[in-house]
C-alpha cells in the first residue's frame, strides 16, 4: 500500500501571541515540526504543543531556527558555523527534554525559514546543521532523519554523514519543470484550488510524480507533504488532502 | 576521611561579553554550575564551558534562572508557576543535550540569583522548580540533587518529592547566629581575610560547624562550599580554600 | 457640553505575530496607547501604528512596560528604580523619535500591565516612573499627563511633580462600592452586556458617576474610558460605546 | 591650524556584563559612538555613558546596529529595508531621549559592526539607513552627519540626500595601496607599534595622507580617527595618539 507523511509547523506561538490552529492541524498531520524557542515557541507553548502531538500520535520533530524572534527566523543571519552548531544543539536538547517528560523523543529535525533556505546552498551553515544532527544522533543512539527541500546541498552532507535525508513536497506551491519551486514573486506561485492540490498529492503518493506548471512530469523522491495550519483555509486544505489520500487507500504515516 | 564539594558559577559569558575566569575556576572546583541561557550563557559558551568541565573531571550542574538576560537573573520575575516549570525544563534539556554530546550528563541543579532566593520562601516558584526537577529525574532515571540555601522551603519540597536537597555554605560570607547570612547591607557581610576563610572552611569540612560573627557555633549540614570565579581575587581565594582542605586531608569531591 | 476620552492599547504586534484590530480601534478611540517595544511592539509595527493614529487624528500616548516580551509585560519584574527609570526614558525617546517623523509627538504616558499595577502601591517603581516622565516633560517643554488607575499612589507623586494625573474607568469591568475593580477571580468581574456598558459610560460622561455591582453610586474623576481592540467583540463594544456617547451629545476627545 | 576628530565606541556594556573602559576613553576622544540597545547597551548603561560624555564635552553620536545582542551586531542580518529603517529610527529616538535629559542631542550617526560593513555595498540597507537619518534630521531640524568607511556606497547616498558623510581612518589598521583596509586574515592587518601609529595619524591630520603597507601615499578625506577603548593597551594607544596630535599643534575636535 502507498504511504506518505504529512508535516506541518506548530508550536509557533510566543507568550501572549498565538499563531496557527495547532489543535486542528495536529489532528490532521503525521509529523509535527515543533518550534524550539529560537524563531518562535516559548517553553510553555512548546510543552503544550508536544503534549498535544503525543496525544494525537503525531511524531515530534525539532523545527530549528536562527536566533531571531523579531524576524520569526525568516531573515538570514550570518552567524559562524560554530555559533550555529551550538544554537542547533541547544534547541535539540531543549525540545528533547520536553519530549522526554511526555514519554517521547524528537524523531526528526527540520530547519525553519531562512535556515531551511540556507540548507540549499550555504555550505558553512549546511555542514554545521548536518554535523550537529549527526553528532546528536550518535550521542542518543536514535535515528534522526532531517527534512529538507529537494536539491539541498544539506541532503548530500546528510548522506555523507549517514543521516537519512527526507525530501518534502509543498501541497500549495507550483513547480518549475526542473523541480524547483516557482518563486513567490510570480503570480501563480501559490495554488488555491483544493481539487487540483488533492489531485497533485494523490499522484505524488501513488506515482512519486509532481506536475510542473507547464505540464512536465517530475519524478520526485518526496516522502512527505508540507501543509499549513496558520489560517482556517490552510487547515481545511490540509484536511482535504488527508481525506483524499486516505480515501484512495494511501496510508498517512510519518517517515520517522 | 572528611570530604566536601566546591561549587562555582561558570558559563556566564554571553556572546561578545565575557564573565569570570572559567578556565581557572574549573581547575579548582568539583561542581560547575553552568548557566543555561536564560540569565546568561549563549549556547557556544555553554558548550565550551561544559567541555572544559568534562576535561577537568568537574561535575556538570544546571544553573537555571529566570528569563532575564538584561538583569542577569538577579531580579525577581513574577512568572506563573506553569511558565517557570516549562522554562526550567527547557533549560535542563538544553544543557543535557550539550552534556550528552560530551559523553556526560547534568548531575545536579542549582537555581540562580533571584530564583535561588525565591526558593527560600516563594511557595509557588519553589514547588514549580522542585516538581520539574523531580519529573525530569523520573524521565531520565538518573539521580538529580538540587543545591540550595540552608533553610529554603524548597529543601522541604525536595524531601517530599524524593529528591536529594543539598545545602551549601558560602566561603566568603559571614553568618548570623541563626545560620542565616549577614545581609550585604551590613559592613562585615563579606569576608576578605583568606586565613579566616580557610580556617572556617576547614572547620566546616571536618566538624560540620560554621562560626557566626558573634562566635556562636552553628551546626550545619552543608555538603558544598560556594566559591567565586568572577575576579582574580576570588579565584585565588577558591584556590587557597582548596589547597588548605587538601593539605588537611579533606577530599574535594562533588556530592553528585 | 460633556466630553470624555476613549483610550485603547495598540501597536502590540511583534514581528510575525499580530495582536488586535488596530485599524478598527483607531477609528473609534481618541487616545492610542502605543506599545514601545519592551512588552510588545517592534519598531516597524510601532511606526505603522503611530502613522495610522496620526491619520485618524488619534492622540499618541506611550504605553511603557517592563522589559519582558515573553510575558507581554504582565509579570512583575523587580528591577531597580534606576533600571526602570532608564528603561522608561528609553521607551519614551524611541516612540517620540517615531512620532516626530510623522509630524507628531507623544502627548501622554500610560504604564502597561504589571507596571500599571505597580503604580498602585509600589513606591519605588511609582516614583521612578513619575520622576522620569516629569524630567522628560521638562526636557521637551511639552505637557505630558499620565494615565492611571484611580487610587494609584503614582497619582499622588504626579501631583507632587506637577504632572497631570488622569484617571480612567474600564468600560467592561464591574466595580466594588469603594471604587476598586472587582477581581477577575470573581465571576461577574467582566461585563458583557452592551446595553449595560453603554448606560454606565453615558452616566460616567454626564454625571461623573460609576455604579458599583451592589448599586452604590461612586463619584469618580475618570476623564478617560479604557476599551479593548483585541477581539472582534471588543471592537464592536468600543464602537457601541462611542456611538452612544456621540448620540447623547458627549464629545469624544482626548484629555491630552 | 590642523584639526581632526577622535571617535570611539562606548556604552557597549549590557546589564551585568561590562565592556571597555568608557571613563578613560571619554577623557581621550572628541566623539562618542554610543550603543543604542540593539547590538549592545542597556538603557541604564546608555544613560550613564551619555552623561559621562556630556561631562567630558564629548559629542554624542548614535552607534546604530542590527537587532542582535547575542552576536553583538557583528553578524549580517538580512532584514528588510523597511524593518531596518524602523529599527534605526527607534534607536535614534531612544538615544535622543536620553541625550535630551542631559541637555544634549545626538550630533552624528555611525553604523556598527555588520551594519557598518553593509554600508559599503549593500544597496538596500545603505539606502534604508541613509534615508532614515536624512528624514530624522529633517524632523529635528538639526545637522546629522554620518560616519562611514571611505568608499562606502552609503557616502554617495548621503551626498544625494544632502547629509554630510564623514570618512574615518583606523589608527591601528594597515592599508592597501587602494585605500582599503588590509584584511584581518592577513598577519600585518593590525598595527601594534605606537610610534608608527602616532606618526601615521600626525601625517593624516597634517597632510591628509595615509601610507599603505607598501609605502604608497594615499590621499584621504578622513576627518576622524577611530580608536578603541576595549583593552588597557587600546586606551593607552588612543591617549598616545591624542597627546602626539596635541603636541604637534593639531586640534582634537569633533566634526559634528
UniProtKB/TrEMBL annotation, chains A, B, C, D:
The keyword Phosphoprotein does not apply. It holds the Pfam family LamB_YcsF. Its EC number is 3.5.2.9. It is an enzyme of class 3 (hydrolase). Gene3D superfamilies: Glycoside hydrolase/deacetylase. It catalyses: 5-oxo-L-proline + ATP + 2 H2O = L-glutamate + ADP + phosphate + H(+). It comes from the Bacteria. Keywords: ATP-binding, Hydrolase, Nucleotide-binding. GO terms for molecular function: 5-oxoprolinase (ATP-hydrolyzing) activity; ATP binding. The keyword Oxidoreductase does not apply. InterPro entries: Glyco_hydro/deAcase_b/a-brl, LamB/YcsF/PxpA-like. CDD domains: LamB_YcsF_like. GO terms for biological process: carbohydrate metabolic process. Forms a complex composed of PxpA, PxpB and PxpC. NCBIfam families: PRK05406.1-3 (NF003814), PRK05406.1-5 (NF003816). Belongs to the LamB/PxpA family. Catalyzes the cleavage of 5-oxoproline to form L-glutamate coupled to the hydrolysis of ATP to ADP and inorganic phosphate. This is 5-oxoprolinase subunit A. It comes from Nesterenkonia aurantiaca. The lineage of its organism: Bacteria, Bacillati, Actinomycetota, Actinomycetes, Micrococcales.
Amino acid at each position: 500500500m502507498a504511504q506518505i507523511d504529512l508535516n506541518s509547523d506548530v508550536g509557533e506561538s510566543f507568550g501572549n501571541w498565538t499563531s496557527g490552529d495547532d489543535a486542528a492541524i495536529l489532528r490532521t498531520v503525521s509529523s509535527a515540526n515543533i518550534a524550539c524557542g529560537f524563531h518562535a515557541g516559548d517553553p510553555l507553548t512548546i510543552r503544550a504543543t508536544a503534549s498535544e502531538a503525543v496525544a494525537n500520535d503525531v511524531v515530534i520533530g525539532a523545527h530549528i531556527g536562527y536566533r531571531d524572534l523579531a524576524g520569526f527566523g525568516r531573515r538570514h543571519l550570518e552567524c559562524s558555523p560554530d555559533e550555529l552548531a551550538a544554537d542547533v544543539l541547544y534547541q535539540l536538547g531543549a525540545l528533547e527534554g520536553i519530549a522526554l517528560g511526555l514519554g517521547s523523543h524528537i524523531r526528526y529535525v527540520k530547519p525553519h525559514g531562512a535556515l531551511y533556505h540556507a540548507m540549499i546552498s550555504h555550505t558553512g551553515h549546511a555542514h554545521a546543521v548536518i554535523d550537529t544532527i549527526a553528532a546528536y544522533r550518535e550521542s542518543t543512539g536514535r535515528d534522526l532523519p532531517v527534512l529538507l527541500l529537494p536539491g539541498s546541498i544539506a541532503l548530500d552532507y546528510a548522506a555523507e554523514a549517514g543521516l537519512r535525508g527526507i525530501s518534502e513536497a509543498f501541497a500549495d506551491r507550483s513547480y518549475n519543470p526542473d523541480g524547483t519551486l516557482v518563486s513567490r514573486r510570480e503570480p501563480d506561485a501559490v495554488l488555491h484550488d483544493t481539487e487540483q492540490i488533492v489531485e497533485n498529492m494523490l499522484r505524488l503518493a501513488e506515482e512519486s510524480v509532481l506536475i510542473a506548471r507547464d505540464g512536465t512530469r517530475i519524478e520526485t523522491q518526496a516522502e512527505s507533504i508540507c501543509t499549513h495550519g496558520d489560517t482556517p483555509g490552510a487547515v481545511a486544505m490540509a484536511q482535504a488532502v488527508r481525506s483524499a489520500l486516505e480515501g484512495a487507500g494511501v496510508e498517512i504515516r510519518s517517515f520517522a
